[in-house]
Design goal:
Layout: H1 28-46, H2 51-58, H3 62-74, E1 78-80, E2 95-97, E3 103-109, E4 113-119, E5 125-132, H4 138-155, E6 164-171, H5 179-182, H6 186-189, H7 191-194, H8 197-202, E7 209-213, H9 214-225, E8 234-239, E9 243-249, E10 252-253, E11 268-270, E12 276-278, H10 279-282, H11 285-294, H12 313-335, E13 342-347, H13 351-367, E14 377-380, H14 387-401
Parallel strand pairs: 3-6, 6-7, 8-13, 13-14
Antiparallel strand pairs: 1-2, 3-4, 4-5, 8-9, 9-10, 11-12
Helix pairs in contact: 1-3, 2-3, 9-14, 12-13
Length: 412
């Protein structure tokens, strides 16, 4: 989950809505695309809305909103709800996102498995394929997509195949640096340094392809698909084979000057022996896998879908305690620099394990000296084990249909 500088993204095709490069259209067609993205972003964020509500929130005229929503309904992106009658005037008609309006592929390349999912416009997984391995090779990942992608497209209803908006890839950057940690020959891992998976997949993929760091993608999934009371500013930790993180500020991903912001796995924290180490050495599933192996228990089930964590309780409790302590130090250190509302914890584990991790982190944080710091709330993420795959799918969705969330509000 380490990061390189951001990779260049493909040019937007001619039929893709304009406005991805800025928030203001420079001509009538560009402004129309901007306003369409504005309406879609608002409906995604707040749920079904009538045109009068959208006009009030955005400051657009009622006539402009009517034209936009009519066009979006004609394009199959919005669905008309049942009219709501008030005491006076015409009934209002709420409009909501059409789940079948657009589809997106999300590819997650992990250190123990590769997953390809297909989501609808609401972020619900409608199809998926998976392959596990001892360690990730470039050829294995590309061959998997080459076989799985056409099969998944063929399985779609014919009328929906033209509604696929893109494929996002979520993967750890600098994969070649982890050969010794995943038990892989260095020469095979060096392929990740010398080859461009975005270009190789794009060569046979019929839709635009994007690449993002896997932890950043998981944080993005929380922003786009997360449920409940989502804070505007938060730290995000995703625990898989290694732990990674992300930062959301003002409701959007913050990646920094080089794309390396939110590399929380690299934060120095005390290890179980009291000596300083990186969070990645303390709060990752790699250590749980090692504990199971040392005790003579199989660890393969850790990577099943859904994750199966049937294991001796003492091993699990030891791991949860160590992870909670490491996360607490990372949260407090980050809070000394970033005044965020919450720290969200998610990962490749069952919901009950996530609940225990959140509680262990809260307990450990309560023991630390927080003088001069207002610690953020420690909360569970809402997306779950598939956050990286869903985050990958959210990249083309955002590129094509969404606006910067700061452009959504006129009066709250």
């Amino acid at each position: 989950m380490d990061r390189d500088p951001p990779r260049p993204q493909p040019d937007l095709p001619a039929d893709r809505p304009a406005g991805a490069e800025g928030l203001r259209g420079s001509n009538q067609a560009g402004m129309r695309a901007h306003n369409e993205r504005l309406v879609l972003s608002l409906v995604r964020r707040q749920g079904a809305l009538a045109k009068s509500e959208i006009a009030r929130i955005t400051g657009l005229s009622a006539q402009t909103v009517s034209v936009i929503m009519r066009d979006l309904e004609t394009d199959g992106l919005l669905l008309r709800g049942e009219p709501i009658r008030g005491r006076i005037g015409q009934p209002s008609v709420p409009m909501s996102l059409n789940p079948d309006g657009a589809f997106f592929f999300g590819l997650k390349i992990g250190r123990r498995s590769v997953d390809l999912i297909l989501t609808d416009f609401l972020g619900r997984i409608v199809d998926q394929r998976r392959q596990t391995y001892r360690y990730p090779t470039h050829d294995a990942a590309v061959d998997f997509v080459r076989q799985a992608l056409p099969a998944m497209i063929d399985a779609m209803p014919a009328a929906f195949r033209g509604r696929v908006g893109g494929l996002g890839i979520a993967m750890p950057f600098q994969m070649w640096n982890w050969a010794q940690f995943v038990g892989a020959p260095q020469h095979e891992m060096d392929d990740w340094r010398n080859r461009d998976i975005q270009a190789e997949v794009a060569a046979f993929c019929p839709v635009p392809v994007y690449v993002q760091n896997d932890a950043t993608a998981a944080c993005g999934a929380e922003l786009v698909f997360g449920t409940g009371d989502r804070p505007q500013d938060f730290l995000y930790f995703f625990i898989a084979y290694f732990v990674g993180g992300g930062i959301a500020l003002n409701g959007k991903l913050f990646t920094g000057r080089t794309g390396n912001a939110g590399a929380l796995g690299s934060m120095p924290v005390p290890g179980p022996d009291g000596r300083m180490t990186q969070l990645i050495s303390v709060a990752s599933m790699a250590s749980l896998e090692r504990y199971l192996a040392e005790a003579g228990h199989p660890a393969e089930a850790l990577w099943d879908t859904p994750p199966d964590w049937t294991m001796p309780e003492p091993i699990l409790e030891r791991w949860i305690t160590e992870v909670g302590a490491g996360l607490a130090h990372a949260v407090l250190s980050a809070a000394a620099v970033l005044d965020v509302e919450a720290a969200l914890i998610d990962g490749w584990f069952p919901p009950n394990v996530r609940t225990r991790l959140v509680e262990a982190t809260r307990t450990a944080l309560g023991r630390l000296d927080a003088s001069g710091i207002d610690p953020p709330q420690v909360r569970a993420g809402s997306v779950g084990a598939q956050a990286r795959s869903l985050g990958a799918a959210s990249v083309p969705l955002s590129q094509r249909y969404l606006l910067d969330p700061n452009a959504l509000l006129k009066d709250g």
